[in-house]
Amino acid sequence: xxxxxxxxxxxxxxxxxxxxxxxxxxxxxxxxxxxxxxxxxxxxxxxxxxxxxxxxxxxxxxxxxxxxxxxxxxxxxxxxxxxxxxxxxxxxxxxxxxxxxxxxxxxxxxxxxxxxxxxxxxxxxxxxxxxxxxxxxxxxxxxxxxxxxxxxxxxxxxxxxxxxxxxxxxxxxxxxxxxxxxxxxxxxxxxxxxxxxxxxxxxxxxxxxxxxxxxxxxxxxxxxxxxxxxxxxxxxxxxxxxxxxxxxxxxxxxxxxxxxxxxxxxxxxxxxxxxxxxxxxxxxxxxxxxxxxxxxxxxxxxxxxxxxxxxxxxxxxxxxxxxxxxxxxxxxxxxxxxxxxxxxxxxxxxxxxxxxxxxxxxxxxxxxxxxxxxxxxxxxxxxxxxxxxxxxxxxxxxxxxxxxxxxxxxxxxxxxxx
Length: 418
Description:
5-stranded antiparallel sheet, Beta-Lactamase, rod-shaped, about 20% strand
């Protein structure tokens, strides 16, 4: 700043010396070379440089070139008018350039703050790929210090498989086919490790329209890429688990459309996935089960009230008409608003168990009938034996049958068993 102020002060003296040499040719235009001198003093030195240059220039013109020369005496009152005009013009130059310098300084300060404190990497890149300027965040992302990075090109640190795609986009940018481009690519960090970034590139052109340099914004997306890879691996493991499960696993939308149909379900119900997916889940549910229960509204009711069907046993029908009993676990899949977005149903074939239960029920009923028949016959025999015992007593003989096991307190008191 001191050097600029010194230059602003020296300019009027330089103008005075040049005008002294040329005075024979430019007289009587005393202010001719001092107007540009005042302008340049303000441009170089700002407010104080402009004011100082204007004041010195006024004094030099007044003393050296205005008549009477080499004095500060005015030959007429009107001679003060150009002096005042020059002072006003010089002060205006000074104030204008001071505001311009301050505006430029604020702009540069904002740019520097934005460039250096940005949460993403920012770089200015030459047309040949050399880094012209990089911020601290980019150095942190790539693991290089500032000077190490400036000594390289972006081609040097781009993962080989991603370089051609990046260069193709740059050629389109230079050709004017696109205004900017955004890609995800990999860089090689210092030490050789790989990092994924999101790269946004724009081209800055000169005033004549020719390419000047690139502005690149680099965002670290390594964590997101790792999460995506983990999610894909988890999804793959989930699919492998679901496809290898010994249970029928279905997912269907609230309107009843099947959206997932695992391998076991395909094998059990006889529907291949490409035919089952998109079809109605009601195709697996008969209108009535073998007990006569009405199932026509079962699917709709599960979609409306999934909490009632967390565990449900119902009969299903296969593609070939075969019927199977299934024990279903139904879980509602809800969206961000809490609305039912689908039903996840996991079912196990319990047909053999149901058949065994039905056989057991039938056998129990048969045993009950036999038991009841046997008890009836036994009661009839006891009645006949009692009659024989009574006749024997009437004849004065000993009763031939021991019926003590059939005695009750009432019969002991003389009340006969029925």
